[in-house]
């Protein structure tokens, strides 16, 4: 990917950069999300206080208190979640797949080291076992310390945490063993790159039971239509059931929206647009983790309605 040129006289080496660019993330008390993945634009949040800065084996980790979105988790200069809008992402990436199949029992989360997807999976009382494979232990530790309302997901007794590479975990997973695999990854530049590639989707399909479902973070229709088109084309080759793109609004993600690729394997048919496994408004475990804030059955169906430009490009990739 092309580096942005800023005219700065001295260019620091890549590992010294905040996010592959020349700019520090925080200037005059404002965090700006600058990246070659969204050239020419940067969303900014006013910083009250930096709470944590560290470097793991995989990435730079930062937490700050923002003026208007609560605490913010940043990896390699890119916003991963804020306390205020995380519900829109976590609830949709989880309930779009799990409300589309009857009786999900065994679920795998790849990435998602903040624990928010676990919190949402745990609302489903049919679920008996939840594996999570996160590559970066620092993300888990930082989330437990600074985002207790999100990391609460780790406290569910059905959860088993594996620290390691999701690609290797799936390769080693027994065939046909999961009802659902949720890929809660960061962007494809950095440690999550392989999670957007065809061999990874092949391992996911193998690990799913017939009629099992995958839901994966699939970027923004405004910024990454080319990535989405590749994902759609690959998924059509790999998944022999349904393949659908859905999206939601997350104000602190680039362009304010983010999408999901939903796929099912050959077997009992899955109609993603018409959920058959309702989750009650109190989230089935409402007392311990509070009610759902974002997801409902109307927004589930609406999430699959696409603007014409995106619909056209996605349909073109689906026809091949
Ligand atoms: N946020 C995460 C994660 C995995 C671990 C911890 C936090 C996300 N995946 C979603 C990120 C979307 C990025 C949009 N630029």
Explained architecture:
This protein has 320 residues and is an alpha/beta fold. It has helices at 86-98, 116-121, 137-146, 148-151, 166-172, 198-207, 225-238, 286-289, 297-302, 308-319; strands at residues 26-27, 30-32, 44-55, 60-66, 71-75, 78-82, 106-111, 129-134, 159-163, 178-184, 208-217, 243-249, 257-264. The strands form 2 sheets. It has a 7-stranded mixed beta sheet with strand order 9-8-7-10-11-13-12, sandwiched between helices. A 6-stranded antiparallel beta sheet has the order 1-2-3-4-5-6, covered by helices on one side. Helix 6 packs across helix 7 (225-238) and helix 7 (225-238) packs parallel to helix 10 (308-319). The longest helix is centred in the C-terminal third of the chain and has 14 residues, at 225-238. The chain starts with 25 loop residues before the first strand and ends with a helix. Mean pLDDT is 91; it is low at 1-18. Bound molecules: 5-(1H-benzimidazol-2-yl)pentan-1-amine. 5-(1H-benzimidazol-2-yl)pentan-1-amine binds next to strand 6. The site of 5-(1H-benzimidazol-2-yl)pentan-1-amine has 16 residues, from strand 6.
């Amino acid at each position: 990917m092309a580096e942005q040129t800023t005219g700065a006289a001295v260019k620091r080496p890549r590992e010294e950069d905040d996010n592959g660019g020349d700019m520090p993330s925080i200037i005059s008390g404002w965090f700006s999300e600058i990246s070659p993945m969204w050239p020419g634009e940067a969303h900014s949040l006013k910083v009250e206080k930096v709470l944590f800065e560290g470097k793991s084996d995989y990435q730079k980790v930062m937490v700050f208190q923002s003026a208007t979105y609560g605490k913010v988790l940043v990896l390699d200069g890119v916003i991963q979640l804020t306390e205020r809008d995380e519900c829109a992402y976590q609830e949709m990436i989880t309930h779009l797949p799990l409300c589309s199949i009857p009786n999900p029992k065994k679920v795998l989360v790849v990435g998602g080291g903040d624990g928010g997807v676990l919190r949402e999976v745990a609302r489903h009382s049919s679920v008996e076992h939840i594996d999570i494979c996160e590559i970066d232990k620092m993300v888990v530790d930082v989330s437990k310390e600074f985002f207790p309302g999100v990391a609460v997901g780790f406290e569910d007794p059905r959860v088993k945490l594996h620290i390691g590479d999701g690609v290797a975990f799936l390769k080693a997973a027994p065939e046909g063993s999961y009802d659902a695999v949720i890929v809660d990854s960061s962007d494809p530049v950095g440690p999550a790159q392989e999670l957007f590639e065809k061999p990874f989707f092949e391992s996911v399909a193998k690990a799913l039971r017939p009629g099992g479902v995958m839901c994966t973070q699939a970027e923004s229709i405004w910024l990454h239509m080319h990535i989405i088109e590749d994902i759609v084309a690959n998924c059509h080759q790999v998944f022999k059931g349904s393949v659908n793109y859905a999206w939601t609004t997350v104000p602190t993600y680039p362009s304010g929206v983010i999408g999901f690729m939903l796929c099912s394997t050959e077997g009992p048919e899955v109609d993603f647009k018409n959920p058959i496994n309702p989750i009650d408004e109190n989230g089935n475990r409402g007392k311990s983790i509070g009610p759902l804030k974002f997801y409902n059955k109307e927004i589930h169906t609406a999430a699959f309605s696409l603007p014409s430009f995106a619909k056209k490009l996605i349909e073109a990739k689906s026809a091949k």
